[in-house]
Design brief:
The complex is a heterodimer of chains A (207) and B (10). Chain A is mainly α and 207 residues long. Chain A has eight helices and two strands. Chain B is mostly loops and 10 residues long. Classes of the chains: A mainly alpha (207), B little secondary structure (10). Chains A and B meet through α1, α3 and α8 of A and loops of B.
């Protein structure tokens, strides 16, 4: 654990909580892509199956359970509780265009051809592109509320901080994981355009 | 370890 890893995790947690609270407080999921949230729930589910097979630390278990719980709670709010406010017409990105190629890639490029390892790899690849339906939705509607942009900022910041964590770990522990690093770079790059808008416009974005 | 996954990372 280093400072980049910890702040990355906290940034990720902040993003998830911000989104949940926004939907809960406004009683609306307008402007939020339910498809991105389904993909994130799938990411956490496939990555954290090791909760059932191995114990790493209390911190590790707690964060995994919180991430999974919040992901499903968010999907529930969007598709069940506040379904009437869900803007399905603008959330038109096809999830299978991401899930199928990512699944194929996970089977081809992984560290070990085993069930849990392939699901872990799948989750890493899928996470890197899971935000695309949300970004696509913003580009279609041409706007994003301030609180939505805060959510995206912390979500993007998290993986960028993990990149620094991996640089740190390479220098001080000689550790590197090429799959996580390359996927993390792709993920961070996808947010660059958004980061630029967030910093220059500050408030809600309108294209 | 050069390319082992780290399940401690989230």
């Amino acid at each position: 654990m280093n400072i980049f890893r910890l702040t990355g995790d906290l940034s990720h947690l902040a993003a998830i909580i911000i989104l949940l609270l926004k939907i809960w407080k406004t009683r609306s999921c307008a402007g939020i892509s339910g498809k991105s949230q389904i993909l994130f729930a799938l990411v956490f589910t496939t990555r954290y199956l090791d909760l059932l097979t191995s114990f790493i630390s209390l911190y590790n278990t707690t964060m995994k359970v919180i991430y999974i719980g919040c992901a499903y709670a968010t999907v529930y709010l969007i598709y069940m509780k506040f379904k009437a406010t869900y803007d399905g017409n603008h959330d038109s990105f096809r999830m299978e265009f991401l899930v199928v190629p990512v699944g194929g890639l996970a089977c081809l490029v992984n560290h070990d051809f085993s069930f849990l390892e392939i699901l872990w790899t799948f989750s890493i690849y899928l996470e890197s592109v899971a935000i695309l339906p949300q970004l696509f939705m913003i580009s279609k509607t041409g706007e994003a509320e301030t609180i939505t942009t805060h959510y995206l900022f912390f979500l993007g910041l998290y993986r960028a901080l993990y990149l620094f964590n991996w640089i740190w770990r390479f220098y001080f522990e000689g550790f590197f994981d090429m799959i996580a690093i390359v996927a993390g770079m792709v993920q961070t790059i996808l947010y660059c355009d958004f980061f630029y808008l967030y910093v220059t416009k500050g408030q809600g974005i309108s294209l | 370890s050069d390319s082992q996954t780290d399940k401690d990372e989230l």
